[in-house]
Amino acid sequence: MTRRLAIAIVSLSLLLLVLIRASTGAMANPFNDPRALGSWTAAFLTLCMLSFLYGDNPFFRFAEHVFVGVSAAYWMIMAFWRAIVPNLLGNLAPEIPAALFGMDLPLDVPLGRRLVYAVPLVLGLLLLARFLPRGRTLSTWALAFTVGTTAGLRLVSYLVSDFMAQISNSLQPLVVMRDGGFAAGPTISAVILTGGLICSLAYFYFSRERQGALGVASRIGIWVLMVTFGAGFGFTVMGRVALLVGRVEFLLRDWLGLI
Fold it and tell me: What is the pLDDT of residues 240-250, one digit of tens each?
């Protein structure tokens, strides 16, 4: 109850501040300036999202639905103009986008290439067959082909970019020499990195009882993992806090004009 009371007081104070500044002309009039209308709309949606701190309410649900709907429509339009029209229709039947949208596309597409691009068209139509009473099986085959192909392609790319890259970066000399001399800082970093890697791997070794050196290494590995997870979580929180600071700065500077 105390939290909700504090949020209600802050909301009423903000409303009073807006009314005072709007009545004195300190804020732009949204009915005369299109940019001011956009700022007022963005501020309203931001406050609607922040109203979830008070609890679930119609304003939050309205802003949530607007966000989801606008995002889905935006990405649908982007996919249509960046993927379907230039890639699919541009290779399957370039005469259609050239005649309908005036796009400058090469019309001399070989027949073999047209047949190849007919495959994704058929798969896309089969995915839409899910909306038919008896088309669920056909859409399942199309979905399985899409998921399997994507997983196979992503596996190779992730294997090279993540797994192999981490192994390559871990294989480095423990003693670093630079300019003909001993480099203390990089050497200490390399020793800590290698030791932390070995201890972290020792924590996941379950074929022997954790006693002696293995037990010590596994306990150090736990600390290394906790520090890594904590740093990752802290980085994520800092990113979210930066977004919050950006919205608060927008409200105070671009909307209210206080800073």
Answer: 999 999 998 98
Beta-carbon-side half-sphere exposure of residue 130 (alpha carbons within 13 Å): 9
CB-count exposure of residue 194 (10 Å: 0-12, 13-18, 19+): middle
Per the structure block, which two tokens stand in for 93? 């039947």
- Bigger pLDDT: 8 or 101? 101
How many angstroms separate the CA atoms of 259 and 255, rounded?
10
C-alpha to C-alpha distance for 77 and 84, rounded to whole angstroms: 10
* Contact call for residues 55 and 4 (beta carbons, < 8 A): yes
pTM: 0.68
The 3-state DSSP class for residue 182 equals strand
Q: What is the dihedral of CA 178, 180, 182, 186, to 10 degrees?
A: 10
Instruction: State the amino acid at position 221 in one-letter form.
Output: G
Distance in angstroms (rounded) separating the CA atoms of residues 233 and 108: 53
